[in-house]
Design brief:
This protein is mainly alpha-helical and about 325 residues long. It has helices spanning about 10-25, 30-40, 45-70, 80-90, 100-115, 115-150, 155-175, 185-200, 205-230, 240-255, 265-275, 280-300, 300-310, 310-320. The longest helix has about 30 residues, at about 115-150.
């Protein structure tokens, strides 16, 4: 992190959210509940949750594989993408903003598969966008199920507005997928071309079906992580609620304004699982923090791959500095 101090916004926002949450818990004299919940956590549950996170990372590599195949890069192997996914997850823990881990992933794609830098960055941006857009579709379906279960109206309405805006964005991308734009300004043409390229990608039915399947499997895996941790921590939370709110938890956690989702994830877990079941705010925070610990533990295999390839590590660091 030689230049980490220049990229403090997401790190500071996460600290601010976490400080506010712990301030509220302190006023309610619930900080002791956090320690009690952590102390009774079953280590076997944390281990299983960590393994499930690795499975979720594999699904993320599968999504990249779908995008690279649709982009004509059929020779790229899944295992190579999985290693890159693990390394970028490890890099994310040393970067104050998630964008740096995305740059690292793009650098690895560029160096490993001999791609142009712009091409590699575009693939990473497509993967990010497709993951978010697929979560929008799954989240909208989950919200309609919530309507039948009598969930709090304000919470359901907020989700409908969020997913509705996302669906409008999908509609715009599909509309411009076949448009050609030439402004004569190279930077503008590249940016517009990337957006149009994403729209063209989403007009391919086999790509959309696999991306939606990958997102559904990923959200299912993340929900299982929460369920395993909740059982290991002996928390009274409904597995159905976890499945229904996982798209929203995933979406908020992946926003680039947070450092690896910290702060935002705790806030949304309190607003969802902490208000629709029998969990207290302190228990909801404890569950979310345990999830963050499992994500960190799952990033350690990436540290091994990062350490055993010093030449690649130095090349990636040079690419990040250039970016």
């Amino acid at each position: 992190m030689p230049k980490g101090s220049q990229h403090w916004i997401a790190f500071a926002s996460s600290l601010l959210f976490l400080a506010a949450i712990f301030f509220i818990l302190g006023r309610e004299q619930s900080v002791g509940v956090l320690a009690e919940v952590w102390n009774r956590t079953d280590p076997a549950a944390l281990t299983l949750a960590t393994l499930l996170i690795l499975f979720v990372q594999a699904v993320g590599a599968w999504r990249v594989k779908v995008i690279t195949t649709a982009d004509g890069l059929t020779s790229i192997k899944f295992l190579s993408l999985f290693r890159i996914q693990l390394i970028s997850q490890f890099v994310a823990h040393g970067a104050p903003i998630s964008a740096l881990s995305d740059i690292a992933k793009a650098a690895m794609l560029k160096l490993r598969f001999n791609l142009a830098a712009v091409h590699a960055i575009r693939l990473v941006l497509y993967e990010r966008a497709c993951g978010a857009l697929a979560a929008v579709v799954v989240g909208l379906a989950a919200t309609f199920v919530q309507l039948t279960l009598g969930m709090p109206q304000d919470l359901v309405l907020a989700q409908l507005l969020l997913w509705g805006a996302g669906c409008a964005g999908v509609a715009v991308l599909l509309t411009i997928g076949g448009v050609r734009v030439n402004t004569g300004i190279d930077l503008v043409d590249r940016a517009v071309g990337a957006v149009i390229g994403l729209g063209h990608l989403l007009r391919q039915s086999w790509v959309v079906s696999q991306l939606l399947l990958a997102c559904a499997v990923q959200l299912f895996g993340l929900a299982l992580v929460f369920i395993v941790l909740a059982r290991g921590m002996h928390l009274p939370v409904s597995p159905l609620h976890i499945f229904l709110f996982m798209p929203l938890i995933f979406f908020v956690s992946s926003l680039p304004v947070f450092y690896l989702g910290w702060g935002g994830r705790e806030a949304v877990v309190i607003a969802t699982l902490g208000t629709t079941g029998n969990m207290t705010k302190a228990e909801a925070v404890a569950l979310s923090v345990a999830f963050g610990v499992a994500v960190f533990l799952a990033s350690l295999p990436g540290a091994v791959f990062w350490a055993i390839r010093p030449s690649m590590r130095k090349a990636i660091q040079r690419e990040i500095q250039k970016a």
